[in-house]
Amino acid sequence: MGISISTAVLLLCWLANATAAKATKGQGQPIIIDTDLFGDVDDVGALTIANVLHNCGLADLRGIMINTPSQYGAPAASAICSYFGNKNVPVAALRPITNASFFDDWEYVRGEYASKIAYNWPGSLTNASLAPTPVELYRSVLASAENSSLHIISIGFLTNLADLLRSEADDVSPLTGTELLEAKVSELVVMGGRYPSGWEYNFGGTDPNSTTYVIEHWPKTVPVTFSGGELGSTVFSGQRPLEESPSDSLPVSAYQWYVGRGSVTREAWDPITVLYGILGLDNFTKLGVWPMLAYANEYGYNTITASNGSNAWVNDTSVRNQHWLKLADGVTNTSMAWLVDNFLVHPPGLSRCLV
Ligand SMILES: *[C@@H]1O[C@H](CO)[C@@H](O)[C@H](O)[C@H]1NC(C)=O
Ligand SMILES: *[C@@H]1O[C@H](CO)[C@@H](O)[C@H](O)[C@H]1NC(C)=O
Ligand SMILES: *[C@@H]1O[C@H](CO)[C@@H](O)[C@H](O)[C@H]1NC(C)=O
Ligand SMILES: *[C@@H]1O[C@H](CO)[C@@H](O)[C@H](O)[C@H]1NC(C)=O
Ligand SMILES: *[C@@H]1O[C@H](CO)[C@@H](O)[C@H](O)[C@H]1NC(C)=O
Ligand SMILES: *[C@@H]1O[C@H](CO)[C@@H](O)[C@H](O)[C@H]1NC(C)=O
Ligand SMILES: *[C@@H]1O[C@H](CO)[C@@H](O)[C@H](O)[C@H]1NC(C)=O
Ligand SMILES: *[C@@H]1O[C@H](CO)[C@@H](O)[C@H](O)[C@H]1NC(C)=O
Question: Where does the chain cross the membrane (predicted)?
Answer without folding.
Answer: none
